Amino acid sequence: MQIHSQSESDPSPNEHTEQGLQRVLNRLVRTTHRNALIQQTTDQLRESLQVDRVVLYYFYWQWHGQVTFESLINNKFSILGSIGEDDCFNDHYAALYLAGRVRAIADIESEPIQPCHRDFLRSIQVRANLVAPILIPRGLWGLLVAHQCQEPRSWSPLDIELIQTAAITLATDSNIRES
Q1: How far is Cα 112 from Cα 146, in angstroms, rounded to an integer?
Q2: What is the pTM of this model?
Q3: 57: which strand partners?
Q4: What is the pLDDT, as a whole number, of residue 70?
Q5: Distance CA 79, CA 86 (A)
Q6: How far apart are CA 62 and CA 60, in angstroms?
Q7: What start and end residues bound the annotated signal peptide (predicted)?
Q8: 85 falls in which pLDDT band (50, 70, 90)?
């Protein structure tokens, strides 16, 4: 009978546990930093644009997603967790945002948009919106969206630049790129 000592290259059960815990801790830290950046970005953007609401719509699977962050002027405008209309956002619209499209709608009532899109925007109290894609190397990660809920709004070139810069800031963060 031979007794083999554990090789130094073979981690012990305690080392496996420690490595697993370290991976969990690292992921938690990355998620916390990512969430803080997104909340800070949506808050600053809402204040800079002076709008009723700024949201992050995150795509969790093939153009299906939900509002995962929001910054509000008033809690009555909350749409946190909203999933949108499945049939409205399709490959055609995804391709436009994948190409970097920024969409500014001054008034949903006079803009030539799909009826399902108009109905959806009405259902979440939107009168004007500004949308910028968050593009990471894997593709379209999400949309950063500013909403004016109470009245139409003409979006200025500076407004468009602000939302584009915020979307790029999010897209270039390593914690978002890796999520």
Answers
A1: 19
A2: 0.85
A3: 67, 143
A4: 97
A5: 16
A6: 7
A7: none
A8: low
